[in-house]
Amino acid sequence: MSSERAQFFESNERAKSIKEELLRLQEEKDKYEAELKESLEYLASTPVGLDKPLLDEEGFPRGDCDLYAIRGARNRVSCRRNDLKALQERMYEKLVELQSSTHEEATQQMVADEEDRRRGLEAAKLQLAEMEEKRNVSLLTPFLKVAIVETNSPAFEAGLRSGYQILQFGTVTSTVLASQGPSALMSATAEGVLLPVWVREEDQGEPRKILVVPHRWEGKGLLGCSFDPIRAK
């Protein structure tokens, strides 16, 4: 995964976490508001309400209401108002954080989309290049035929099989072989170096590229196969 994609998913998870936290805070806010409303409604039903004195004109506790319940309700109102104020501040901070995260997420999405577009163009160019290469190879004349392929050899593991016709061996074609001789094949076969071999399975079959990595193995040579020349008709 690219760094842009990783950052996008990380930002997306961050925004999701903030939204979940906001939902939790909203539930807590709803709970506090319900408790505040209940306490205010109770106080409104009493003779003293939220702020009238609890003592009569002579300085004695009033006898026309439940002073203990009123004190508790007034205390809950004060606490819940403070709780709601603190909660709203936290929610505001989370909203600012979410806005920043959402903006960052959108930016990273644009970067990720641009990366996908670039990769798509590169893949399309590569595909066109491979199609062009295949078209050019299909015009070549086969000059070798795979005679024997040893089991478990580098050639066998790569997919070369007896009977395949060789159209191009690395950079060697029939024209190159005719001008440089067999030494061209030896020069194309280097230990540990990727060797592209274009083959055709039948006289009129589609050319196919096989990638061979010549290397030492339990048998002879670096490829483990032999070729017969194809005589020009």
From TrEMBL:
Keyword Chaperone tagged: yes
GO biological process: proteasome regulatory particle assembly
Cross-referenced InterPro entries: Nas2_N, PDZ_sf, PSMD9
Coiled-coil regions listed: 8-42
Nas2 N-terminal domain location: 23-97
A Gene Ontology cellular-component term: cytoplasm
Gene3D superfamilies cross-referenced by the UniProt entry: 2.30.42.10, 6.10.140.1710
Keywords tagged on the record: Chaperone, Coiled coil, Proteasome
Organism domain of life: Eukaryota
Name of this chain's protein: 26S proteasome non-ATPase regulatory subunit 9
Lineage: Eukaryota, Discoba, Euglenozoa, Kinetoplastea, Metakinetoplastina
